[in-house]
Write a structure and sequence with these properties.
Layout lengths: L2 E5 L2 E3 L5 E8 L7 E7 L6 E6 L5 E3 L7 E6 L4 E6 L8 E9 L9 E4 L3 E5 L2
């Protein structure tokens, strides 16, 4: 069983910072590609940031320069440091894990956390 547990969400003021954490279990973390998604009310879930097992980074244009994704393989944890937050960042943030297939013929497996609410408001 693979589980992802997010933490660190909450209420912050515009311009503030927040650090999200996602700890996984039931998988060999260092082999997985990890990402953070978010979904605001009435909008599609969108990719915020990703980091591959090899450390390749990708960010949504809307968060470049403000958010930083990182991982600590020893702790089976991926982080999302969010700075200069704006009300537009308000959303449920989801941790995502893609486990590589054991063979070429097999398919990768995707896993999602339950989400953590981030609210940016005065």
């Amino acid at each position: 069983q693979v589980t992802l547990v997010e933490s660190g969400g909450g209420l912050v003021q515009p311009g503030g910072s927040l650090r999200l954490s996602c700890t996984t279990s039931g998988t060999i973390f260092k082999f997985n590609d990890m990402a953070w998604y978010r979904q605001a009310p009435g909008k599609e879930r969108q990719l915020v940031a990703s980091i591959t097992s090899g450390g390749r980074l990708n960010y949504a244009d809307s968060v470049k320069g403000r958010f930083t994704i990182s991982r600590d393989n020893a702790k089976n944890t991926v982080f999302l440091q969010m700075n200069s937050l704006t009300p537009e960042d308000t959303a449920v943030y989801y941790c995502f894990c893609r486990r590589p297939p054991p063979t070429i013929e097999a398919s990768a497996r995707d896993y999602w956390g339950q989400g953590t609410q981030v609210t940016v408001s005065s």
